[in-house]
Amino acid sequence: MSAESPSACRSAAGDGLATTPPERDARPPIPQRRPARFLPWAPAVTLAVMLGPVAAGLAGTLAPAFGWLPPLGGDAFSLAPWHDLLATPGLGTSVRLSLVTGLAATALSLALTLLICAAFQGSRLFRLIERALSPLLSVPHAAAAFGLAFLIAPSGWIARAVSPWATGWERPPDLLTTNDPAGLALIAGLVAKEVPFLLLMTLAALAQADARRMRLAGLTLGYGPVAAWLAGVLPRIYPQIRLPVYAVLAYSMSVVDVAMILGPTTPPPLSVRLVEWMRDPDLTLWFRAAAGAVLQIGLVAGALLLWRAGELAVARLGRRWLEAGYRPRGEGALRILAGAAAALIALSVALGLAAMALWSVAGLWRFPDALPDGLSLRVWMRQGSSLADPILSTLGIAAVTALAALALTVACLEAEHRHGRQPTSRSLWLLYAPLLVPQTGFLFGLQIAAAAGDVTPGPAAVAAAHLVFVLPYVFLSLSGPYRAWDTRQATVAHSLGAGPDRVLWAVRLPMLLGPLLTAFAVGFAVSVGQYLPTLLIGAGRVETLTTEAVSLAAGGDRRLIGLYAILQMAAPLPAFMLAIALPALLWRRRRAMTVAQ
Amino acid sequence: MRDDHSDRGRGLALEGLGVRLGEEQLVAVDTAIAPGEIVTVMGPSGSGKSTLLAAITGTLAPAFRLEGRIRLDGRDITALAPEARGVGILMQDDVLFPHLSVGANLAFGLSRAVRGRAGRRARVEAALAEAGLEGFAARDPATLSGGQRARVALMRTLLSDPRALLLDEPFSKLDTERRAQIRSFVFERARRERLPVLLVTHDPEDARAAGGRILEPVSPGGAPTG
Fold first, then answer.
1. If residue B200 lies in a helix (H) or strand (E), which one and from where to where?
2. CA A135/CA A398 separation, integer angstroms
3. How does pLDDT run across A289-309, given as a tens digit for each residue?
4. Residues 18-57 of A with CB under 8 A from B
5. DSSP A239-279
6. Alpha carbons A535 and A279: distance in angstroms, whole number
7. Which residues in chain B have Cβ-Cβ distances shorter than 8 Å to A11?
8. Hey, is B19 helix, strand or coil?
9. Residue B32 sits at the chain A interface (C-beta within 8 Å)
10. What is this model's ipTM?
11. Long-range contacts at A277-283 (CB < 8 A, ≥ 24 apart)
């Protein structure tokens, strides 16, 4: 049947008994969309805020690397900075350390992550691991590195625990367990922080990949759980964790704070030397630093290409394995290895934090005593008043940055929703760009560009620099829940007469309160952990808990380091507690809201 | 026929309404639904039923191409924003806002024309009483039964003073016993409010109970193709 039905037409024409008053008909037609104000611009503004500093920093690095820096007398292009750089003693070792520690830390982190997923996905242990992730992730890199040093140093907790009864050591042994020339401690410190990050990204990918059934298909074909996972699940999820893996590689190769705490010292990896030159009172070293920063970018780019080639090779070998139908035996050992790795990572971070907390309140604590003679709040009391400034600037910068990132992210996602745009893989690359360019590669240039642009170094400039790194993480944290929101809620709200803004503020944002607060907490923690942007863009005038803690690394006052590292670790906790407590409080009488989260 | 359409008649008129995605014709309907009339659209899933509803509520994704006109009580709403159309919709899962109480859900729907806290609250209470849900205002929607939720969703829609009602398989999740009860409640309320109703369903029982005409999303002799 169709409109030709005469009865329909007759009654449509002849019925005048509608309950709505007739004057509503006289309303002038409302244009389909009110002219939006900021929203259509949000993606462009966000990209500018995020990538503008990267571009400015790259320009500010490239010019002095080729001799151009007029304020310091560099007014002609030359290769002199490169000659100077290449003539630096130990440069080869520094470059090798950057490459080897970065690649090794990344490969090891990825291998352990995949092994843990392959061995335990779907098990009760896996849920335990999932629950341990967030606390592990929220620990800043520097705090985790200090914690590890407190454990494994020759005079650390492990040596004390087994001395003298097992080792016979009455004094700390003359071993290089931290700052070892091969960078093993540095690799361990990076792995402890990057495995939780990669696990989180893998979990997000697994949720969309129908992993359970793929794994089951492998199991019923006679493959063990690990082999079934590697054959059936990994090929589907790797494309989704590729960018995070690249970010881990770029980060591990150019990290500064962890390398200063755990890395080799004579000579240190390239990134640490770059920062030494950048911070040197002799400003002519800036040219060498700029050339070195360009070298660092080139190294990371080369390593990324190498990694890509490795991916292709592994994929080819993997296909051959799959087609051969080989069912490996002895998976039990792999599962034990995976369990041990997961436990070791969680334990080392947790025990490291405990060691630092204990040191900060330790009285006399002689080697090889396992515990201090007594406890004292002396360090806390003595530092008391001088702690206020770094605590306030840490929390203030983190709050402002995370809030700005959250607002921009919501604006971008809402613009995407209202204009019906689909996220593309290119936009994901743009999002990861600040995480793929090494920090040492562009932050120094940004400092130069900021000075050239008369930007006063201070908390505001530091917050703007933090935003570059906070935005990607906030976006990654929020975009999943935001896009997964049931748009039928919007359809219903519209049909009840609510415009797009009312739907956003009264329905969508309240329903997403939990994910919003979590994204805020993630951004907060990322900001708290920033070392290099605070140091360089703040020009030494902005002191946060992180810069204070790292600057103590060389000194070796354990009580003071412990105090600052514990504070640094505790700084993001209020944000995470808010993210858990506020929704639980607000939605305590809304069952569907608490189940959903 | 043409003359009838252009009459200042009331009801929901879909005039040569077509929706395409690329080359594919998803919807082709040409009909008029009178106040108090219930027209049923039947078809298997994926047959364009939800596309038809999205066209009428104004929530089609940009990739779809819309042809023809939609008139509601004589007013051309084809290009209006969803919130300005006066088209209410009830969905399969009643889609009560989970973060609001039952009363706040109803107040969200209640027209802005009703002013004053006390006045608005009284209207909400009256609507609840009408649905046999006195004293439910402070309740968490998640604690209601399926039938109660369906009634709250209907009352919320009616409080927004819609001039047409779309039903998107609103009874399919209810158990058989409740289904008939809720169905007659919805139909009776819609008829009493003299709303033109478009019911989308795959349950022949729904269509029988509606007792009106039955269309397909792409009706023979519907919107012109090609």
1. strand B197-201
2. 18
3. 999 999 999 999 999 999 999
4. 18-20, 24-25, 27, 29-34
5. HHHHHHHHHHHHHHHH--HHHHHHS--SSPPHHHHHHHHHT
6. 9
7. 11, 34-35, 37
8. strand
9. yes
10. 0.88
11. A278/A444, A278/A447, A278/A536, A279/A535, A279/A540, A283/A72
